[in-house]
């Protein structure tokens, strides 16, 4: 359902993504892991056009796009079918939790207000925050804000949701509630591409793992095989260096 | 203080207040409203880095902030007739005050726009909103709240600066006072009296500012 071929991105003479190709099937939960500066976040941002790619091809929703020549219209059309969850939540500070979720429905999709409110309420209920619907972001904890952000992405009924290190900005005791929501989403069949440092999530929840380093994909594997029988020596070294107790 | 001075003060109070209500306040309100429109447009142009218009916006701010308000008033009222442009005193004052204040408020607005996190704009894009929708519904409301205290400052400054309009024959509070002084030779008492009325106006605006800030604050805090 999502196919990326030969994606390249260079920042001021520094290549950040060197010819990345990857494929995501419907229902896949793909974890993208790797050391800092490996290009994981840039990959996600390029795929949703928050950062323009230099070159490459993207197939999504049955159409193939040249990433170096994207029109505003094509970008808008693709974004209507994708969701994005940020590391720093990025909730609209002047809107309540419910309005954060309805904004994309009422304003971008011209949905009647009643319908949008009922969908948004359901989405908030799903992340366990129905009783916080009228709270503003500043009145919510980090974990709650991230759950609202997930509800905001889910409510638009996207074909895929991108997660950019969704738990990295959270206090340790708040990570669990966000991972639980993501796990629930994964088990419901949502297609997810998740940049993460949470090895437990990568191993226990995701079906595929992509290991990136230095702008390249080092290894792409089923998550079980990735952790138990990695193919690449570099992967083995990476897995040895990360805290074993974290897995 | 003698009975004579008291008599003059009491007698002149409505004669000063009335031009205040009929000239000072309307001049301030109209010019400031126009200044806000100019400021928002100029700030948005810079925020969006619109080609050609952005350097023009910078040029406008550079010229207006770099020249005295009094000189600007004189150029428009006494200077433009040389080019065949004759403006009445009040419209000339409105024009100069709004253009002048617009330059300062544009910088306030630009700073406030830039204080809204880029992440919220990206989040807006990701839920399918257009740039205009994001600016109108997410960024501008937050920027206005941030800009509100410094904009109130500008408004309060402006109430007092309108006294400069006396120099281009606008019959506002200060000019009214000068005329009474010329008749009665009581400058100290009368200028203190007009100062007090300016203070009264400013106090009312400060109260208005406090009320407005409360109105605009959501969820007990500005930002997440």
Task: Describe the structure concisely for a colleague.
The complex is a heterodimer of chains A (about 250) and B (about 220). Chain A is built from 9 helices and 10 strands.
Quickly list its features.
heterodimer, A: 247 residues, alpha/beta, six-stranded mixed β-sheet, 9 helices, B: 224 residues, mainly alpha, MetI-like fold, 0% strand, flat
Order of helices and strands of chain B: HHHHHHHH
Roughly what is the average pLDDT of chain B, rounded to an integer?
94
- Strand residues, percent of chain A: 25-35%
What is the alpha-carbon Rg of chain A in Å? Answer: 18 Å
Are there runs of chain A of 5+ residues with pLDDT below 50, and where? none
Low-pLDDT parts of chain B are none
**Main structural class of chain A:** alpha/beta
Discrete helix count of chain A: 9
Q: Total helix count of chain B?
A: 8
Largest interface: A-B, 35 and 26 residues
| SSE string of chain A, helices as H and strands as E | EEEHEEHEHHHEHEHEEHH
The name CATH uses for the topology of chain B is MetI-like fold
